[in-house]
Structures are given as structure tokens and as C-alpha cells.
């Protein structure tokens, strides 16, 4: 509770700061092309729907209280949204052939929470708060409820009208090499530090066993386990993974705490996904893993920076998209 009082004070301060900033930003120099995210603003719903943020926060809290695992799910859903066509709620569209209908999206969760928030907001402020903004704010609130840092989310994202199943495969599936991961992130304007930092969200996530079963029994066609897997951890995983659909925590030590143990696990060869473990063996990413493992404060601060960057990826603003009435479908025209 005290934490939220501080947040409220912080919010007020930030809103003042931003009011000053947006006056300056309102007069762009001629000929200077603007980043789409420049059209987002912290005060976007201040007049349009002043309760938007508190409604989202309250709903996210209620859902996570009922089911803690939803915190990680909603952060993941936001990532899957932003990784394809930017943060435009394309992942929420629910029909044959949409990203959400793709096989690789079948383990995504949290849609009901977003629908619940949207329904409430439509009653309060019809056709005002976009699904992309709801999902972005919900990912932030989920982080806070899980014990992670708070950050201000600028608003004004519009919802896209395109969602293509095939494109869902652009999201890392857990078997990419570090070069591929770095390239994927780079294409979204995210750097190596963002990659290592956002992977840290796995401090509270889970995975089905399917994506890493090969590491337990037949690594790279050797018919042996992955040698880069801690032997105690290997034993445990063999016990927990009876079926490829069984769920295990990505952070085996403190799965319900938003902390840096995920990174120390990598140093102990106890990363669940190869995409995580490889971050510690690759010289481009390893220094960042080392830094995060030893400095929780650094992780918290960088997490909010990287999440802010993620939430601004290829956003649609102004008339580039719409405010969906129902997050599952584009508006009838
Ligand atoms: C990494 O993956 C990319 C794309 O899948 C592939 O082209 C490349 O050869 C791989 N690099 C290494 C070092 O395995
Ligand atoms: C996987 O196996 C191939 C072929 O046997 C080998 O060239 C490659 O180095 C192995 N990769 C790893 C990461 O062990």
C-alpha cells in the first residue's frame, strides 16, 4: 500500500514534468521526421478517460491475486504483441488466420483479463482506450504486482487492423541462437542490453516442457543430455516433465519473486531454455548477465527502460489505426 502512495506522488510529479515536455515537443522542427512513439504522451487519457489507468491497475491486481501465473503471462502477451507489427494489439485479434490462432501462439494466456478490462473501459469511456494501450499498461502493472519496478507508460497507441498467423513465428520460440536473437531485437530497435534485460522477465515465467525436451534426452542429435545443463537441474526436469505439455518454472529457485536469481541460475547452468542459457555463454551477452546477476538495482532500472522501449516499438498513432470496441475483432466499417 505504501508503495502505491509513493507511486501516486511520483505520478503527479511526472505528469507535471511531462506537461512541460510536451509543450516543447509540440513544435517539431520542419523537415525532422518524428519517431511514431513521439506521438504518445503520458497525459493522453487525462481528459479523455481519467480513470483508465486506475481501472486497468485494479483489474490486473484482481486477476493476478486470483492466479499469480497471469503476471508472467501478460508480460509475455505484451512482448508477443510488440514483436509482430509493433505494439498494436494484433495478437489479440481472434479469428482464423490471425497471429493468435497460430500454433506457436497456443500457450499464450491473459486474453480474458484484457477482455475484462476492455469491457469495463467501454462502459466508462466508450471507444476511447485502445487495446494496445491496455495491454501495455497491463504488462507494467503485472510487473509491479509481481514485485518488479514501476514505470510511466505513455499512451496514444492505436489498434492495428492486420494480424497474420504466419507472422507469429517471428517471436523467438526458444531454439534460436544468440545471433538470431540479437537480430530479431535489432529489427525492433532493441539492443543487446534490452535482450538480456527483457529475458529477465523469465524470473517469474513458466514454460511447457516441449521446447526443451531435446536438452534432457537427445541434445543436438547426441542421444545425451545437453552438457551445458546442471546435473541436479537435469534430474529435476526429467522428473517434472512427464508430458511435453507439463509446465515448469523458468526460474527454478525463486519462481514467484521478481528478482535477479534468473541470471544467477544461468551462471549455475540452470537456465531452462537454450535461448536463456546461451546468453551466459555468448561473449556479446555474458557481460550483461554478469552485471544483472550481481546488481539487482541495475536490473530493476534497466528493466523499466527496456520495457518502455518495447512498449514504443512500431506503434500506430493518430489515424494510423483505430480504437477497437472489442479487442478480439477489428471494428465494423
Ligand atoms: C544462427 O541462426 C541463424 C538463423 O537461424 C543461422 O543463419 C546461423 O547460421 C546461426 N549461427 C550459428 C553460429 O549457428
Ligand atoms: C551440433 O551437431 C553438429 C553436427 O554434429 C555440430 O557441428 C555442432 O557443432 C553441434 N552444435 C552444438 C551446439 O553442439
TrEMBL record:
Name the major location.
secreted
* Enzyme class, spelled out: oxidoreductase
Q: Report which residue ranges the record marks as coiled coil.
A: none
Tell me the residue numbers annotated for binding Ca(2+) 2. 203, 251, 254, 259
Name the domain of life: Eukaryota
Question: Can you state which reaction this protein catalyses?
Answer: 2 a phenolic donor + H2O2 = 2 a phenolic radical donor + 2 H2O
GO terms for cellular component: extracellular region; plant-type cell wall
What's its EC?
1.11.1.7
* Record-annotated active site: 80
Protein name (Swiss-Prot/TrEMBL): Peroxidase
Organism listed in the record: Juglans regia
What is known about what this protein does? Answer: Removal of H(2)O(2), oxidation of toxic reductants, biosynthesis and degradation of lignin, suberization, auxin catabolism, response to environmental stresses such as wounding, pathogen attack and oxidative stress. These functions might be dependent on each isozyme/isoform in each plant tissue.
> One MF term from GO for this chain?
peroxidase activity
What the entry lists under SUPFAM superfamilies is as follows: Heme-dependent peroxidases (SSF48113)
Q: Which CDD domains match?
A: secretory_peroxidase
Q: Which residues bind substrate?
A: 172
Give the co-factor note: Binds 2 calcium ions per subunit. Binds 1 heme b (iron(II)-protoporphyrin IX) group per subunit.
Q: Which protein family is it in?
A: Belongs to the peroxidase family. Classical plant (class III) peroxidase subfamily.
